[in-house]
Design brief:
four-stranded antiparallel sheet; six-stranded mixed sheet; globular; 114 residues
Length: 114
């Protein structure tokens, strides 16, 4: 089973920055796509950014140019650098790994005040 643990969330003012980290127990092949999702109460979880094993990235339009996803395969780790945060970025952020044994972790809360 692949069980992620997210960290780095917190309370920040609009325009501020946070860096989220995710480490995953279990085996993660270097061919696995990894991604960050976020969810707010009453809404579906949405994909924010993804990265392939070769470093190809994709972002949802609302965060492109502000967020940067990266990974360290040797450490089974995933990161999300978030700059220029906006109140609408407030959510619980989750790490995801394309692996049959994946299970959602607890997430990390990001709160952006106006």
């Amino acid at each position: 089973q692949v069980q992620p643990v997210e960290s780095g969330g917190g309370l920040v003012q609009a325009g501020g920055s946070l860096r989220l980290s995710c480490t995953a127990s279990g085996s993660i092949s270097r061919t696995n796509v990894m991604a960050w999702y976020r969810q707010t109460p009453g809404k579906q979880r949405e994909s924010v950014a993804s990265i392939s094993s070769t470093g190809h990235t994709n972002y949802v339009d609302s965060v492109r140019g502000r967020f940067t996803i990266s990974r360290d395969n040797a450490k089974n780790a995933l990161y999300l650098q978030m700059n220029g945060l906006k109140p609408e970025d407030t959510a619980v952020y989750y790490c995801w790994v394309a692996n049959p044994g994946f299970a959602w972790g607890p997430g990390t809360q990001v709160t952006v005040s106006s």
